Amino acid sequence: EVGYDDTFFTPVHSGESGSSAKIPVRHDGDSSRGAYLWSSEANSLPLSVLKNLLKAKGISTIFLSASEKLQPERATQIRESAHDVGTKVVAMSGNNNWLNTSLEQIRLQTHQMTQNFDGLHLDIEPHTLPAYKSNPLPLLDSFSALIQVASQEAKCAGKELSLSVHPKLPPLFVEKLKANVDQIYIMAYGITDPERMLRVLSPHLSYGSTKLALALRPRDFANEAALEQFITIIIRKTGIRCFAFHTLGEYINFVVR
If we measure between CA atoms, which residue out of 256, 225, 230 comes closest to residue 53? Predict the structure, then answer.
């Protein structure tokens, strides 16, 4: 694992040299990039490193895990640092308990979680629950209902709502979710072959690429060049132009190794 050091993420342009010239600036403008940031990473990541990385790599959104482990003061510092360089910070929750929560409580939780952030990202995975295999419909109905309520609350506050979903969720169900969200990230980890990725995405792409995004795990790829080449192919063949990296801490280690 690479230790954090300010020199790792000083933005540099081609032709420059020196020990800080490790992270070339992205200027393609052809896609948007986001990154998940876990609480443990957020609590230890130097703010100067964070700001330089966001600028150098054009990260437009941080999905910040708003768990109890996240220090409140740290959340404020990360939000302010990200906003300084034009990056949004969205509160993220991956707790499946949302599926067993009353709709009124969901409304309240959405309000509380978006109050000091630019939006809410839900990484809720009904397919991981034991009941899903034998009878998925009640869980999918609960998922749909909670998204509708969260969307209403987020829109009232002028905040965005996005989701992470497993590629094996029914494509028609995912398509219907689009009406209530700004973006849906398909979690397709472990896939580095573009043709295989196209096969995985094909059922969802049959409804079009609107609001579809892709969550990738950088460490699955041999190097950053391979990751960027993969993204270029996916953009060209699917029309998907929004990507998120899992996670920001791993992405840091990936780009400097």
Answer: 256
Instruction: Tell me: cis bond preceding 247? Omega within 30 of 0 counts.
Output: yes
**129 dihedral zone (left: phi>0; alpha: psi -120 to 50; beta):** beta
User: pTM score, two decimals?
Assistant: 0.89
| Contact call for residues 150 and 178 (beta carbons, < 8 A) | no
Per the listing, tokens 């609001």 go with: 211
pLDDT in tens, 156-215: 999 999 999 999 999 999 999 999 999 999 999 999 999 999 999 999 999 999 999 999
Task: Single out the residue of 158, 77, 79, 153 nearest to residue 117, CA to CA.
Answer: 79
Residue listed under structure tokens 């707790």: 95
In one-letter notation, the amino acid at residue 171 is: P
Q: Strand 32-37 to strand 59-65: parallel, antiparallel, or no bridges (unpaired)?
A: parallel
Q: Pick from 124, 66, 107, 68: which is nearest to 90 by CA?
A: 66
